[in-house]
Amino acid sequence: MLDNIDKRIITALTEDGRASVETVAQTVGLSPTPTRRRIRQLEDAGIIRGVRADIDAERCGLELAIYVFIKLLNRDRVTISQFESRIMNLPEVQRCDLITGPHDYILTLRLAGMKDYNRYLREVLAELPGVSGIETSIVIGKVKDRPHLPLDAADT
Known about the structure:
The protein has about 160 residues and is an alpha+beta fold. The chain has two domains: about 5-45, Arc Repressor Mutant, subunit A; about 60-140, Lrp/AsnC effector binding domain/regulation of amino acid metabolism (RAM) domain (Alpha-Beta Plaits, 2-Layer Sandwich). The chain contains five helices and four strands; from the N terminus they run H-H-H-E-H-E-E-H-E. It has helices at about 5-15, 20-30, 30-45, 75-90, 115-125, and strands at about 65-70, 95-100, 105-110, 130-140. Helix 1 (about 5-15) crosses helix 2 (about 20-30) and helix 2 packs across helix 3 (about 30-45). The longest helix is centred in the N-terminal third of the chain and has 13 residues, at about 30-45.
């Protein structure tokens, strides 16, 4: 279980993953040595999985953000395994979640534009094993983009 210091360390690293141990220590009110030890423990426990750059996809030419809802024809092990294996090798798919409700998966994609998505839909998504339905929602504007976890809410 995370204590308040661990939560503050995670928050500090979420805000600036390149912050030095000394800076994080000062933020959380510890000296560097115990802060370094706690960070290592959080990494060893798999809570901190890595530090990544926050890339602006639009400035990289990937202006179209898309949510794709996938329904499978069958939910047997072979179909699920084949589908998920193929998804893992598609760099355009930023995220794939297994969901409840009328669809089986939701994919988050980034592409340059609508022509690219039209091609991708026909040549890639429609050819995935076991797919019986595809629905798409295009992101027209970003309201909130916050990578922080509501760690205080976990206490309630």
